[in-house]
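Handout, section B. The chain below has 203 residues.
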Amino acid sequence: LEEYEQAIQYYSKSLKDVTPILESFMGRARCFFKMGKYESVFVDLLNVKLKDPKHFEAIYLKGKAHLKLNEFWEAASAFNKAIIIDPDHLNAYYHRAIARATTGDHYGALKDINYFIRQEKEAPQAYFNRGTILQRMGRYKMAIADYNKAISMNMSTSEIYAKRGFCSYQMGLEKRACKDFQAIARFDRKASNALIRKYCDQL
């Protein structure tokens, strides 16, 4: 954090000039974002917007800050604007997919994450996120395929085994689900035992 604080001091000093430069606002906004000071991010990005309403990075960073604050509608709106300016920016589609999925726009989210994965085929988090979207849509078999893909890329978390397990359970594959619930014990034995008691003890 110290390096970001020093950078903020540098940018703040330059902003005292008679005609502060846009990059100083952007630089300070980046630092505030890294430090989790999102309201300060918005203040600096507003100053960027006043000077350049179509500044891609400012609009994109605004969307990411809204995501961090769980303001998903605002995030999706910002990413929409960013993509209009730069329709080839993959990460804008990736982050818009997250925002759209959380607002309930699953078809829009799926379209965005598919576009991202077509370009970035070795991104386990993207497969995990697509699996989550598909699971919310009730497409359990396809969701499991994506969770399998992410796991094959060495993504190993309690959440991914829980999600895959619930998909299997919804498909009537209780024994397969219970294997995933048992696997959660590597990360959280208490959570694993709770799931096993609820879904597996009767088998």
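Note. DSSP finds twelve helices and no strands in the chain. Compare this with the example in section A.
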